Amino acid sequence: MGKILILGNSDNINWKNGLSNAICIQMPALSLGEDGESKLCQFVIDNVSDDIIACALDVDSIYSPELCLAFAMTLRLSIFELKGAALMPVLFVSNATQDLFYGYKYSPIILTRSIAVEIPDRAVAALSVMEPLNSVEYKTLFLDLIKVLPNATEGRHSLANQWGADVLHRIVLGPSTDNSLIQKARRSLYFRYILSLTLKVDDIEALAKGHDTIKSFERMAPIDAEGKKILLIDDEADKGWEDVLCRLLKGATFKTISEQTQDYKSLSDNARNEIERGNYDLIFLDLRMNGVSEESVLNPEDFSGMKILRAIKSLNKGTQVIMFTASNKAWNMKALLDSGADGYYIKESPEYVFPHSYSMSNACELLDSIKRCLNNGYLRDIFRKVKKIKELIEENKYFYVDKENDKTQEILSSIDIAFDLLSKSNNNSEYRSYAYLQLFLVIEEYVKLSSVFCEMYDSLYLCRDNNAQYCILKDKEVKGKSFSYNSVITMKSGTGHFVLEKGIYESRFLETNFLVSSLLIFKFSEENSSVYQWTKIYKVRNYAAHPKDAIITEEDFHRILTFMLYFFDPQNVKWRDPLQAFPRLSMADQLEQLKNKFNRR
């Protein structure tokens, strides 16, 4: 036989003598509110066991109808912990009329099924006929008839953060937590109410039978982030986000910036220094960093987090940033991505009841974004190299011939396109191939400049200070669609690179490999063209020309960028003696070549 739980001052409860199976407990004196609800919730969980079949509250000895109503509401909304016991009948025992229970925050529970008010003389009889709720009634005759509002001490922003962190924690780490803030939030009647609203009838039935619901056992594995550096920027990080993200990213070094700020400049010096010098593999950034003052902001560009995002990306576009936002508006998501965000996670708000399937999908997308960002962490170093290459090209005016022939901006745009393609590739072979080709194009365009190489008569000259000083090829002979030259450098057999050795150069066109090799040997005084793995770079370029089949690796991008840093840095220039090239033709020899050229025609 089950037990009846009676709450009140046992010395004043005479009607309980008619119950042989009664357990009497003193109701604690609590002031309701955030702390009171939390203590009441813990009291219910600690004192209601699965062998109790009904509960009676002696209202006249408790002296607080509101506390009695709160107890009943807490009992019903503790279905995840109490299982079927949360559906037990509840009787309010009082000599007063039912009007005593109206006008309070929790009064709607009086209108629900398996809740009754009776005078002491009829209490035992009433308990004998009352029945617990079934799963359908819990949904339709309890949840659908009540509405629990949040405590006024918490703003919408804080509530959304507490709720969102708890939702993610349940999905990824399960229902158990030792985080005091999450535990406190879970003891809020408002949060319990919202969580109960996500239940389907089948879930309620499973809980009533003592089983766990899908919410308890369908979890996602934490991410192996050993050796990674993670930064969380959120003014409400202490609402549970710091804890859940630390647990989600196993092995990571984790730091937090939890300042309220209206933009990047308003952050403290320490915070800005952490962002700029921390070299983080991933940054989580909240869209609203200025508390309640941003609750009325509508334009996505005006959000504090958006301003911080743009500042971070201006420092290094390769820094991986995932935005956290309570907004699910499409235009906000688009604005985030347009501003460079590498992903976003929608913090679920208790103002909207999301089905569990949405929460799972939302969490899956977050985990996918995190894994992708951690894989793309190398883009920080890529961007540093890209930025330096652009500076070298611009400062040294490599692509400036005159005002009408200035390709500098075109070349800088080509480099930007390459980085954007790579950052969006997500291992897409075509994107990565096109990114590589865009970088290689910069080298190709440089060696095509007339200020670098120029053809004179039947010879090719390498220019120094815009003057043709090094004769690299001479005595051109046309052979159908091909041509041959006497060359001052030749391909060394079995190596794939050029060396300073006279020979014959045959081709249908002047190849980029030959031109770059000439520069390496004469402008940079290298022994051969294999410096900084140029030969490998050129071969990869040929693979990239077949984008669908090419596999261009992170190492390949670092290799070509390292070469470009060397190639465009004027400090590396060390010209050879022009006498190591072919002798320049005298004026008489040039006239003779011209005469022979026209005679051949």
What does this structure look like?
By secondary structure, the chain is α/β, with parallel strands linked by helices. It has 23 helices and 21 strands. The strands form six sheets. It has a five-stranded parallel beta sheet with strand order 2-1-3-4-5. Strands 9-7-10-11-12 form a five-stranded parallel beta sheet, with helices on both faces. It has a five-stranded antiparallel beta sheet with strand order 15-16-17-18-21, with helices on one face. Strand 16 (459-464) and strand 17 form a beta hairpin. The termini are far apart.
Note the main attributes of this structure.
601 residues, five-stranded parallel β-sheet, 16% strand
Q: Can you give the mean pLDDT?
A: 90
Strand arrangement in the largest pleated sheet: 2-1-3-4-5
User: What percent strand?
Assistant: 15-25%
Helix content: 40-55%
**Overall geometry:** rod-shaped
Number of beta-strand segments? 21
Task: Please tell me how large the radius of gyration is.
Answer: 38 Å
Helix/strand-derived category reads alpha/beta
The largest pleated sheet is described as:
5 strands, parallel
Q: Low-confidence parts, pLDDT < 50 over ≥5 residues?
A: none
Distance between the amino and carboxyl termini: 118 Å
Give me the number of helical elements.
Answer: 23
